[in-house]
């Protein structure tokens, strides 16, 4: 029978046999899959695993620093690369969702390729691909694999994609990945994190992306997510986040009329992201969250809650 411990033992032995003394590069995303893959490889080959964690400037508030610290605390050989400016530059003026994905994907490939080139004699690329990714090969992967297709359109493969591939999680499901992670001693909070799309806040800012919009959405998102945690609701929700809408609406503040941004909050229940139902969050929670957002986040004067299920509405708005 399958147990996390037998899986770990076999996988570590397999990785040692397969990789030997070779060097491996892996892109960490802050998500469960890439983290568990990294810890398994670290157990098998230690410092020959070179992890790269890229800040695309579209992560949640404080995420880059706090997750990087956490990775270092876990003993991973990890390099944090802050490429926020490069991504924002690449996204300038782009409004179309698929074009944004492509721009983010291509920027990621460039940054990752640059970094991989700095590792002498690296021969393997490790990925946190899990079984559902293998069968569906949907866009729902954060790392390099998500972007291979769009890069094909541009020309030849970047060098890191010519590396040999190692995917220690390719035969198991998400819940099994979480159990393996728990057995490996990974922080339960990290293992229980909601899924977060590779293009990050880039597909939650409808329309074009600016540094100011990212900052606003990070504040709104942090209030919503921290509130879910404080109210004990975070673990009851499969995924949650906020969208910054490309409309202004009229409000009042004191004697003044305001004409400011509107944000939509979304929280869904799901098992695999293929279908999803909106979550019946308590009105008291929504009331408090809405007040907090409008009082604390300058530039936002209206909050709405998304009560659409998938299908036909997708989880993300873009
Ligand atoms: P949708 O919006 O299609 O989302 O209902 C289903 C799941 O996939 C995530 N998602 C993405 N993940 N790159 C990713 O890595 C993407 O381009 C992307 N688009 C959607 C979404 O967050 C949800 O978990």
TrEMBL record:
Entry keyword set: ATP-binding, Glutamine amidotransferase, GMP biosynthesis, Ligase, Nucleotide-binding, Purine biosynthesis
Reactions performed catalytically: XMP + L-glutamine + ATP + H2O = GMP + L-glutamate + AMP + diphosphate + 2 H(+)
GO cellular component term, pick one: cytosol
Single GO molecular function: GMP synthase activity
Residues reported in the UniProt entry to bind ATP: 29-35
Pathway note: Purine metabolism; GMP biosynthesis; GMP from XMP (L-Gln route): step 1/1
Highest taxon of source: Bacteria
Domain GMPS ATP-PPase: 2-193
EC number(s) recorded for this UniProt protein: 6.3.5.2
Function in brief: Catalyzes the synthesis of GMP from XMP.
Subunit structure: Homodimer.
Name the UniProt record assigns to this protein: GMP synthase [glutamine-hydrolyzing]
Lineage: Bacteria, Pseudomonadati, Bacteroidota, Flavobacteriia, Flavobacteriales
Full-protein positions shown: 194 to 511 of 511
């Amino acid at each position: 029978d399958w147990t996390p411990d037998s899986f770990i033992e076999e996988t570590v032995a397999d990785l040692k046999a397969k990789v030997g003394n070779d060097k491996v590069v892996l892109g960490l995303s802050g998500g469960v899959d890439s983290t568990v893959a990294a810890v398994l490889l670290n157990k098998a080959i230690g410092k020959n695993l070179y992890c790269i964690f890229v800040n695309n400037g579209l992560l949640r508030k404080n995420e880059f620093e706090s997750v990087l610290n956490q990775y270092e605390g876990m003993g991973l050989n990890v390099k944090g690369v802050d490429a926020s400016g490069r991504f924002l530059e690449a996204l300038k003026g782009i409004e179309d969702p698929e074009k944004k994905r492509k721009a983010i994907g291509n920027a990621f490939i460039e940054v990752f390729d640059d970094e991989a080139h700095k590792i002498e004699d690296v021969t393997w690329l490790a990925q946190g691909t899990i079984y559902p990714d293998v069968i569906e090969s949907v866009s729902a992967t954060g790392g390099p694999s998500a972007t291979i297709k769009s890069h094909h359109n541009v020309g030849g493969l970047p060098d890191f994609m010519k590396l040999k591939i190692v995917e220690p999680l390719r035969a198991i499901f998400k819940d099994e990945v979480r159990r393996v992670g728990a057995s490996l001693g990974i922080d339960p909070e990290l293992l229980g994190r909601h899924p977060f799309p590779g293009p990050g806040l880039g597909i939650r800012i409808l329309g074009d992306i600016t540094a100011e919009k990212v900052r606003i959405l990070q504040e709104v998102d942090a209030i919503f997510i921290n509130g879910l945690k404080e109210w004990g609701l975070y673990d009851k929700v499969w995924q949650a986040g906020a969208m910054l809408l490309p409309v202004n609406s009229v409000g009042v503040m004191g004697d003044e009329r305001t004409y400011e941004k509107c944000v939509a909050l979304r929280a869904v229940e799901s098992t695999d992201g293929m279908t999803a139902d909106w979550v019946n969050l308590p009105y008291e929670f929504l009331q408090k969250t809405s007040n907090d957002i409008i009082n604390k986040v300058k530039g936002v004067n209206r909050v709405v809650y998304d009560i659409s299920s998938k299908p036909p509405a997708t989880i993300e708005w873009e």
